Prior knowledge:
It is a single chain. Helix content is about 0%, strand content about 40%. By secondary structure, the protein is mainly beta. A five-stranded antiparallel beta sheet has the order 1-7-5-3-4, with no helix packed on it. Strands 8-10-9-11-12 form a five-stranded mixed beta barrel.
Amino acid sequence: MAALTQDRQTPRRISVDFEFPVAAATKIYGGSIVCINTSGLATKGATSTTLKAVGVADASADNSAGAASAIRVKVRRGCFKLANSGSTDQITLADIGADAYIVDDQTVAKTSGSSTRSVAGVIRDVESDGVWIEFK
């Protein structure tokens, strides 16, 4: 396809909802980072190199006593404020536009923690009480 020569109506999705089957023995809290594991099932954000962040849980999903895929979790994509890591891994305004890395189900960090963390998304803003992350 050739480059544009006039304005175009580009379709977009803003804060779109998705649903994913939840991994066995897993509880995902509302408002937490949701990831897809290597089996293609939703799990909570954690320090791991095998997770793919997909968004934030719209509500809790308790599959603690269930088998894999017994329930689904509703996930919202978009830009969300999460907790900032501390010390030398704290995200600052200078990091805007870079990737943030998953520490746990509510916290992101500046680095991969010596290649132990998966990417959460792109850093869009930093405030005193958290970091705005856009999920890819």
